Amino acid sequence: PADGGRDVARFAAFLLRRTALTVVVEPLQRGAERLESDGVLAQWLQIYAMQFDLVRMVLASMREVFPNLAVYSFHHGDLIVLASPAPLPPLDPAALDERLQGWGVAAQVGEVLGIEGGAGLLGFYLLGDEETARLAAGAALNTEDRPRLEFAAPRSLYLPTRDANARALRAAQVRPLPPLAPGHPLHGSEW
User: Is 4 buried (19+), middle (13-18) or exposed (0-12) by CB count in 10 A?
Assistant: First the structure.
């Protein structure tokens, strides 16, 4: 947009070598200022070599700025957290197909994720607003004046946390599918 806002933003990957440089409340707030009111931020989050309290801290810090979150698990141990100031729109697989085709990346996405089209993304859904709110409740925040994650994450570096974290996240799941756009065969189902 002409005013310098963004409708989609992506923060740099959360790496242990550069621990917690992007999942800090204040930079998230600055990023939110650049988003359109219905914009979406996408943040990669690892759950391997991360104690579960740190995963909760990341979710709590993101929820502090963006009240609407959805979490997708694309590869065992790697999550994508979608965050927005506005409610996230229902997933529309046909619109995703169109967008992936328009960007010229449909074949690559299909190859990397092993899916055929936007409907394949449904299986990667993990958590929505309700679940992330419960997980984030009571968790510490990662802030510029208290960069807890920066100092705590290296202590997890060689711990085998991936499987336990994945089980804890799956246990928190309430719905197996994200909200779906009207017209989708599973729209409104509790499947």
Answer: exposed
| H-run or E-run covering 141 | none
Contact between 164 and 111 under an 8 Å Cβ cutoff? The reply is no
What is the phi/psi pair of residue 81, to 5°?
A: -105, 120
3-state secondary structure of 135: helix
Q: What is the DSSP letter of 123?
A: G
107-132 pLDDT, tens digit per residue, is 998 998 898 888 898 899 999 999 99
Task: List Cβ neighbours of 100 (8 Å cut-off, separation of 6 or more).
Answer: 106, 109, 118
- The model's pTM is 0.85
> How does strand 125-127 pair with strand 68-75?
antiparallel
CB 119, CB 38: distance < 8 Å: no
What is the side-by-side strand order in the sheet with 6-10?
6-10, 35-46, 78-84, 68-75, 125-127
Instruction: Give the separation between CA 24 and CA 111, rounded to whole angstroms.
Output: 33
**Predicted confidence (pLDDT) per residue in 67-92, tens digit:** 999 999 988 889 999 999 999 999 89
